[in-house]
Amino acid sequence: MSETLRELWLRGLAFNDAAPADVLVRLLEEAAGEAGLLMCEGRDLPDAVVDEALHHPVERIRRALAHNLHVDPARLAPLASDPSGLVRANFARGSRHQPRWVRPLPYDILATFLTAREGGEDGRLSEQDIIGELWCSRQIPLSFAQDMAGHDHPALRTSAAYQWQSLSAAQRDALLDDPDPGVRKAARESSWVLDPEAVEARLPPIGSRHAVSVLCSYALSPAVVELCFAHDLVNPLARNRHTPADALARLARHPDTEIRRLIATRPDLGPAAAELRQDPDADVRMRARLQPSIRTWVEFDAVQRVVDHGRDCTCPITKPATEPSPDWFAACAASGEPVLRRVAASRPGLPADLVEALAQDEDEGVRIRLACHHPLAPPHLLLDVFVTRPAHRPHLLTLPAFPRTGLTHLIGHPDPEVRALAAADPDLRRPPVDDPDESVRRAAAANPSLAPETLETLLTDLRTAEGAAANPSLPADRMHALLDHCLNGAATAQAAAGRR
User: What is the phi/psi pair of residue 312, to 5°?
Assistant: First the structure.
């Protein structure tokens, strides 16, 4: 048996959806090589395999499992306190292939990370290194600061204090008066961002990157606002929620179209909104038409997540800390403005009757948003978006409602990704195992409709061996027989190499 064929069989078995736990556990052996690592990272796993991998003596296995986004993160909780700092860091970092749906970690796992006093028994990383990975991973829910501000553990209240603007006034007051001195210190260090005079006193040099971040989000004194206008540094003012009304009125008449576009949907815009509805720029006028529907910053956030993004936007989908009311989303769904209907289509909790209406919307952007965001989006819509908008294919394939049958009409499609989807349809009478594209051949060879004798032939062909080994109709005893060939052959080769 060639080394190439061995690797193809191992990779195929690693991703065979019907492989029993005892087959998958064998792939954790050292002789299985990269296939075991790919399996631990890249697919859902039975509990028995998860248990075996969680406590595997080989660190690389645990590190691969730590990147897994298919297994319930609660099952992976021991990795947050693994003896290896690199395993912990991988778990804190999350998947290497960022999904559209960002899966937050359970609070008990976050607490384990944020209250750790060391970064692992191996001493290769500090707890702060690992926490840094966690904060960059998007696995911390946006509501985390609000939820942790009153937690029993002072380290979690400290974490909340450093997200000062996410907290309510009552929570800020409580943290400033916290019984723990470390929490009080963190609160004092954070509180200046809402004090215009303190911001003015601490303002970094105008033009520096740090200054721009301050001007975009912190409370600004009149003197700082005038400094921005004097240096024509008004883009941050347009983004800052603390910018005063008189400054907004000036920005509404700014010659730069981008500045007017940035402020056109703000809920605090005031009379300037009427002016912008007559703006010479069509995009500014459209945004200004939306403004009367936006009464709060929460509604503003919901619109901003849509209005600045095109049909092929693949930005991460995260659950906001707070959402507008269901009635507001219902009004958006009935709006004459396509952007507001796209906003409604982006809400996973939209009622079924509105989903049905938006699935037939004349605006393609509405239909795409619904397909990518809503669990009740009809399968035919998911398939239509898959075929017409390639950018969304990886995400659509992860959705439970995505159709896997009734695809035979696509087998002659010019796009090989579409043909590969059709080639896996179990209703297909003749899977195209001779297709010129490798991905189509692999999908066809994994089609469970293939006859056993055909499958055996495909297992010996380098062009189809991986797909055939991944075929769910392959009997379990045949899977074990393939593993015997692969693992025993690898062990023999390793022993021979050692003797040399």
Answer: -100, 20
**Between helices 47-54 and 59-66, what is the axis angle to 10°?**
130
Q: CA-CA distance, 293 to 291, in Å (whole number)? A: 5
Residue carrying the six token digits 């910018």? 243
Angle, CA 96 vertex, CA 94 and CA 100 arms, to 5°? 80
For residue 101, the SS3 value is: strand
* Average pLDDT, integer, range 368-386: 98
**What confidence score (pLDDT) does residue 495 get?**
44
* Identity of the residue numbered 173: D
| Mean model confidence pLDDT for the chain | 95
Q: Note whether 320 and 297 are within 8 A (CB).
A: no
294's enclosing H/E stretch is none
The reported pLDDT for the residue numbered 55 is 96
> What pLDDT does 500 receive?
40
Which contiguous run of DSSP H or E holds residue 35? helix 34-42
Q: What is the pLDDT of residue 3?
A: 78
What is the helix, strand, coil percentage profile of the chain, to 5?
60, 0, 40
